[in-house]
Give the backbone structure.
Amino acid sequence: MTIIGTAAYRYIFPEVIALITSGRLAVEKLVTSVIPLDEIVENGFEKLVNDPSEVKILLDLSK
């Protein structure tokens, strides 16, 4: 199952997906944390607001 959501930039997805697929955009380097859903407030939103080193936080829905 794949879940994709966005609040902005929805018209650039085909180009971005092509860049990722071709390997020209290394998105793995952008992921700064992986957290379970139940930590989304304290380790998700709070980190993004207060820690400038956080870029992308992924939710691991299997935990």
In short: The beta strands are 31-36, 56-60.
